[in-house]
Amino acid sequence: MDNIVNTFYDEIKDRVRESEYFTEERLELKPYANHHTIRMCEIAVIKIIKSRSKAGVRLEAAKRFLKLFKLEDEMETKKSDPLWAKIPFHKNIVERFFENAKAVFEECYQEGAVESFGCCSRYMECSNQKKCIHPDIKEAQGCIYKHNLEKGRIFYGKNCTVNGNKSE
User: Fold this and answer.
1) Domains and CATH numbers, the chain
2) What is this structure's pTM?
């Protein structure tokens, strides 16, 4: 089983690595007693489970990502497990996991939690443009100054609306 798991994970990793958001920390293979879980941006996405089938494993995918993996028609569900869908371990289905791994990873990245911070080194440019200009949309979600800008509270630069901070 370990060989199948590692091969599957390595291929997922190769596909996800193409994303501009990829870092080693954002993709993880987590081992458990009878299965391994692939986590993307701390979200469990795929389970590789030991089974008695010919392949020796079966796959499960988090139901909320089935559409992105293009696997809605391939799933088998149980009422007892509302979050996961069983997926047959066939070459053409496995290929769909690989082909769509980057899109799923990027969705997980967008959904994941963001750490808050006051502002970044671009605060003066943001002030002058009256909006956040951070190139990473996801990271910018954590910018507290961005929320002030959106409410018209500009603390720096030529558009300063708060007394005492005007500078060009």
Assistant:
1) 2-111 (3.90.1150), 115-168 (no CATH)
2) 0.69
